[in-house]
Specification:
Layout lengths: L12 H16 L3 H10 L10 E6 L2 E7 L4 E6 L6 H16 L3 E6 H6 L1 H13 L1
Parallel strand pairs: 3-4
Antiparallel strand pairs: 1-2, 2-3
């Protein structure tokens, strides 16, 4: 089974088995910003792109991913301003980009205060 035949498989079966319970929990307990963005991007509302939320990609659970267009969207809370977390985020993003994904990051405040501007950036990125 190749990634081209089944593009929804973005993690190994072993990784998926390990991450699935946490991903399911995260889908049921989104932050306000994650929920707001999900309401805006779900059902192909931006550029006809299908997004999945809290999905395992390369051993990580990402906030949102459009597998067909290789786009990951992350919504960052305050913890992402801490130096250790920023270093981790940079390493994680570099790995995801090395696997062919583009990664967009938005602060919670940007999503909550300017959802249409965030949606516009996502739409522009999808169009590239």
């Amino acid at each position: 089974m190749t990634d081209e035949q089944h593009p929804q498989f973005t993690s190994s079966p072993e990784q998926w088995a390990k991450l699935k319970p946490r991903a399911r929990q995260m889908r049921h307990e989104p932050t306000r910003a994650e929920d707001a963005l999900w309401q805006r991007i779900r059902n192909r509302r931006i550029g006809g792109a299908k997004f999945r939320r809290q999905h395992a990609v390369e051993g990580f659970i990402v906030d949102f991913v459009c597998i067909e267009r290789r786009l990951i969207v992350e919504v960052d809370g305050d913890i992402h301003t801490l130096p250790d977390q920023q270093a981790y985020d940079q390493q994680r993003q570099a790995l995801l980009e090395s696997r062919g994904f583009r990664v967009l990051r938005f602060a919670n405040a940007d999503v909550l205060q300017s959802i249409e501007a965030v949606a516009e950036v996502i739409g522009e990125t999808l169009a590239q």
